[in-house]
Write a structure and sequence with these properties.
Elements: H1 3-15, H2 21-32, H3 37-53, H4 57-64, H5 67-90, H6 99-109
Helix pairs in contact: 1-2, 1-6, 2-3, 3-6, 4-5
Length: about 120
């Protein structure tokens, strides 16, 4: 994996509107540390950050069916998310497919190449 490819993966985490603040702060720190030993240290943590912040599809279904989801997304938004999550689970999805989780999954899938 090239450094450019790795940068694109980290940028995807940062750009995803559904990434939580912890992930966004980590990704921004990684980008800000360009070319320094700090970036090398953060790279060693990247896969762990992705693994800790990806949502299993059952977690997404649980959230989408909750009162909290209704408060955050509105009744229609929560219902749409719940329906979508159930549909992709029926198709075999293991993880949420929001932009943040897709970015995290891409990192996890390439963990053997990230050093």
């Amino acid at each position: 994996m090239t450094h450019t490819q790795l940068t694109q993966l980290v940028q995807a985490l940062l750009d995803a509107p559904t990434s939580n603040e912890t992930v966004k702060e980590f990704a921004q720190s990684w980008i800000d540390a360009e070319g320094t030993p700090k970036q090398e240290e953060l790279t060693k943590q990247l896969v762990s950050v992705a693994e800790q912040n990806i949502a299993l599809i059952d977690e997404t279904i649980g959230f989408a069916g909750s009162e909290l989801a209704t408060q955050i997304l509105g009744a229609e938004g929560a219902a749409n998310l719940l329906q979508h999550a159930k549909e992709i689970k029926a198709q075999g999805a293991e993880f949420c497919d929001c932009p943040a989780c897709v970015a995290a999954k891409n990192i996890i899938d390439l963990k053997a190449e990230i050093k």
